[in-house]
Structure formats: C-alpha cells, structure tokens
Design a protein that fits this description.
About 55% of the residues lie in helices and about 15% in strands. It is of the alpha+beta class. It has 3 domains: about 120 residues, no CATH class; about 70 residues, no CATH class; about 110 residues, Chitinase A, domain 3 (Roll). Strands 3, 4, 5, 6 and 7 form a 5-stranded antiparallel β-sheet that branches. It has a two-stranded antiparallel sheet with strand order 1-2. Strand 1 and strand 2 form a beta hairpin. The longest helix is centred in the last third of the chain and has 31 residues. The two termini are about 50 Å apart. The N terminus is likely disordered. Keywords: Isomerase, Rotamase, Signal.
Length: about 300
C-alpha cells in the first residue's frame, strides 16, 4: 500500500502542474479554506483515485483505508493549490524552468493516460479465473491456522468466581450476537473488553503454550458460535471464546472467496504484457535503443583536464 500511495503522490504532482487553463472550477467541493481561496473538488479526488487504482478493486479496499487515502489526496491537492496562490509562485510561471517542467510533466501525464486508454478494454473471463484456480490449487491451500475470535477473560479462583464464569458463559451462549457488549461488561481484561473482545486475525500456531487451550477451542469450535465450555488458562483464568471466522491449515480456499483477486492479478498481468508490447513497438518505431550508443559531450571541466 505504501507503493500505491507513493504513486498517488507522483500523480498528484503531475495533476497540480497542468496549468490554470485546465483547472477545475465547478462541482462538489470537498474542502474549502476559511478564506474560500483554496478549493478541492470531489471530481479531482475521484480522478486521482481512479487513475492510480483499478476501479474494479475499489470495493475490496476497507472504507477506513480508502477514506484515509482520500484525505491524504485532498490535503496534498490543497497544499499544492495554496502554494500556487502565492505571489512568488505566480512569478515563477514566467520562468524557463517552469515552462520546461510543465512541458515534461505534460508528456509524462499524457503517456500515463495513453497507456491506460490502450488497455482499458482488457477483460478477464470467469473461465480464465476458474482455470487458474484449478491449475494452482496448492497456492490456495492454507499453510497455517488463523482465526478471528472474541474473548471474555474472567477470574477463576474462588467458588464464587467460578460460578460467575459459568453464568456469563450461559448468558453469552444465549446472546451470542451481543458478545461484544458482554465483553465490555464482564471481561477482566479491560483493554480487550473495551474492544468487544475482538482479536482480529489471530495466527493460532504462534500462540504460546499457555494459550494452547484457546487454539484448541478455536480449531474445534463452530463458526459464529460460542465455544460450549470455558477455556481455563493457568488454573486461575477462564476464557469464553466465540469463533467469528477461521481458516485452518490444509483447507483449500473457496473459489468464490478468491475469484476477484485472481481476476485482478490476471488482468494486471495482461495489462503489463500489453503495455510492454506497446513500449517495444514505440521503441522500435523511433529507434530509441540507439540512444544507448550515444556518445554524450564531455563536460568542459573534463576536457580541460585532458
């Protein structure tokens, strides 16, 4: 993702230097400075996102991550536009350096748009994705045990604590859809409890020996169910385990779960191949490989030494 964000910032730099005559001035505004001089338009943000990411994969990006990326784009665009408003920047537009940079960046931007336009109709069929899946089953076989769990930690020393743990377990079984609320109410681990007891993807094979009972409960437990029995850790802590999702070692991932990712990878491969073909055609047409044989003029300082 860092690589993708770097690509976004490069594209932002190119977009910011396309000249006032091409600047968007109407549409939905997503940011406006207090003095109303700096505006960032939704259309600009969408353009950058769509140029840097495959639109078909946007629904695969978590909303929080996509929102953070859009905010980074808005902030960067606003920064560029703020600089452009300064009198010093206005003076620079008359310089040779500005005109040179603008011309080179225009060529770079046009090249990106040209290549994207050339491959816009590339598709991957369901038959192609299914064949890839069937031919590469080993690549879709789980190599480890991973589970998304919710846990409620309870003290388990005295008879009263043991009885309380049994009562909370019964309540959790009856109200599994409210497990997060129960974790907040009862869990002795306040940090975990405040988060509803959610573990996120947990590599079960990397759990220490002390937590082996949790691993066993996760592997043997039914998905979307609360484990039937308390898990006892160290003789003084009871854990109520709810299994939200699990991926067990040796299982083959269902085709439906990876179809979109396979299609994306195959499409990127086709795009790379097509763009490489186009690049070769242009290199051959204009004899660009002859550049490798150029003898560039020596620097004056080097000539003087000789």
């Amino acid at each position: 993702m860092k690589k993708a964000l770097a690509g976004l910032l490069i594209l932002l730099g190119l977009v910011s230097c396309t000249g006032d005559s091409n600047r968007l001035t109407t549409g939905e505004v997503v940011f406006e400075s207090k003095d109303k001089k700096v505006k960032v338009f939704k259309e600009e943000v969408d353009f950058v996102i769509n140029q840097s990411m495959d639109p078909e994969m946007l629904d695969q990006v978590p909303k929080e991550q996509l929102d953070a990326q859009k905010k980074a784009i808005i902030k960067q665009l606003a920064f560029y536009k703020s600089i452009a408003l300064s009198p010093e920047a206005a003076k620079l537009k008359a310089t040779k350096d500005y005109k040179m940079a603008l011309g080179l960046q225009e060529d770079t931007l046009l090249t990106g748009l040209f290549l994207k336009d050339k491959v816009k109709d590339i598709k991957v069929t369901d038959e192609e994705t299914k064949k890839f899946y069937d031919d590469n089953k080993s690549a879709f076989t789980r190599q480890d045990n991973i589970a998304d769990l919710q846990l409620i930690y309870l003290p388990y020393r005295s008879d009263d604590e043991k009885a309380q743990a049994d009562r909370v377990l019964a309540e959790a079984k009856q109200n599994k859809d409210k497990f997060g609320d129960l974790a907040k109410q009862y869990s002795a681990d306040k940090t975990s409890g405040a988060n509803g007891g959610v573990t996120g993807p947990l590599p079960l094979d990397k759990l220490g020996a002390d937590f082996a009972p949790i691993k066993d409960a996760a592997i043997n437990g039914a998905v979307n169910e609360v484990a039937p029995n308390l898990v006892i850790l160290g003789g003084d802590t009871a854990v109520i385990v709810k299994v939200n999702k699990k991926e067990l070692k040796g299982e083959v991932v269902k085709y439906e779960d990876v179809q979109k990712n396979i299609a994306f990878q195959l499409k990127q491969k086709k795009i790379a191949e097509e763009q490489a073909k186009i690049e070769k055609e242009i290199v051959d047409k204009y004899d660009l490989n002859s550049i490798d044989q150029l003898k560039l003029e020596e620097k004056a300082a080097d000539k003087d030494k000789k």
